[in-house]
Design a protein that fits this description.
The protein has 309 residues and is α/β, with parallel strands linked by helices. It has helices spanning 4-9, 26-34, 48-61, 77-86, 100-108, 120-129, 150-160, 174-182, 192-195, 204-212, 235-245, 250-257, 260-267, 290-305, and strands at residues 15-17, 39-42, 66-71, 91-95, 112-117, 134-137, 143-144, 165-168, 187-190, 218-221, 229-232.
């Protein structure tokens, strides 16, 4: 399937794997890329040399294009950006900030930059800053979210910018893929669906929580302090909301959640861990390889779109 995104990134299918902290490491990224999508390594708060190691390990598993997600709030972001250029990575997705300060170096190195945006205004700013595409992420997504739904955000962003738009948030099957394209997207980004991939290092307890989730099993914490996060509800999320409602300060709330995502992903703590997942969890009812997922999605989407290109 050829779109502006497949041509821009040199990939077979316009499917990008989300840059999920602790989840999107070299095994998952390589598997997605090998299956024809774009696998992405999440730099998160990792030191630059750890990111370098992850890139090299991914390259041992696939010769297909891979990307790196840079969280711009990370103090290590400039060093990670330098590693990306040194290692010859040609695609970067960014979140939590404006990559304008890094854009010159990326452009000189031929790196394609695709920021995640949650508004039309931010999408236009990213376009002016030199972004090659934007990822319009609706509030259905897992983890840190904005305030607008994917259904409303994607067509408005597509109308507001000339660069290609990738839809994200609540997309996990061929129907979501087809809907995103009908709304004006040229590609999709998926996180929760890949979280339960066989190649994902996520603990089996976490994966089972996602597979067994119902449509109403996610909730949003942090709305009151300006840091909304969507996750599968558990003891941790209920305690956070209780403290938030009682007027707890940000420091107390951060103490509660410190290390909780790592505990969920790596140790399988589904009681006191943070189970970041999107609303699409209600549709994810099985574990598959990345190849099986992508082929299933493309087959269903192809039928719905009538093999449009």
């Amino acid at each position: 399937m050829k779109t502006r995104i497949t041509e821009l990134l040199g990939i077979e299918y316009p499917i990008i794997q989300g840059g999920m902290a602790w989840v999107a490491e070299h095994h998952l990224a390589a598997a997605v890329s090998q299956a024809g999508g774009l696998g992405v390594i999440a730099a998160a708060s990792a030191p630059a040399e750890v990111v370098r190691s992850e890139i090299r390990k991914a390259r041992e598993l696939t010769d297909k294009p891979i990307g790196v997600n840079i969280m711009l709030m990370n103090p290590n972001a400039p060093e990670v950006a330098k590693v990306v250029v040194e290692e010859g990575v040609k695609v970067v997705t960014t979140g939590a900030g404006n990559p304008a300060k890094l854009m010159k170096g990326f452009k000189e190195a031929g790196v394609k930059v695709m920021p995640v945006v949650a508004s039309v205004a931010m999408a236009k700013l990213m376009e002016r800053s030199g972004a090659d595409a934007v990822i319009a992420e609706g509030m259905e997504a897992g983890g840190h979210i904005g305030q607008t739904t994917t259904m409303c955000l994607v067509p408005q962003v597509a109308d507001g910018v000339k660069i290609p738009v990738i839809a994200a948030g609540g997309i996990g099957d061929g129907r979501g893929f087809a809907a995103a394209f009908m709304l004006g997207a040229q590609g999709v980004q998926m996180g929760t669906r890949f979280l339960v991939a066989r190649e994902s290092i996520v603990h089996e307890n976490f994966k089972e929580k996602v597979v067994k989730a119902k449509d109403i099993d996610t909730e949003i914490t942090g709305t009151g302090n300006g840091h909304p996060i969507r996750q599968i509800r558990n003891h941790m999320s209920r305690e956070y909301l209780r403290l938030e409602k009682a007027g707890a300060g940000l420091e107390e709330l951060e103490t509660l959640t410190l290390g909780s995502l790592r505990r969920a992903v790596m140790e399988g703590d589904v009681v006191n861990g943070t189970l970041m997942a999107g609303q699409i969890a209600g549709l994810v009812n099985k574990q598959q390889s990345c190849k099986e997922m992508i082929e299933e999605i493309m087959e269903e989407a192809g039928k719905l779109l009538g093999n449009r290109q």
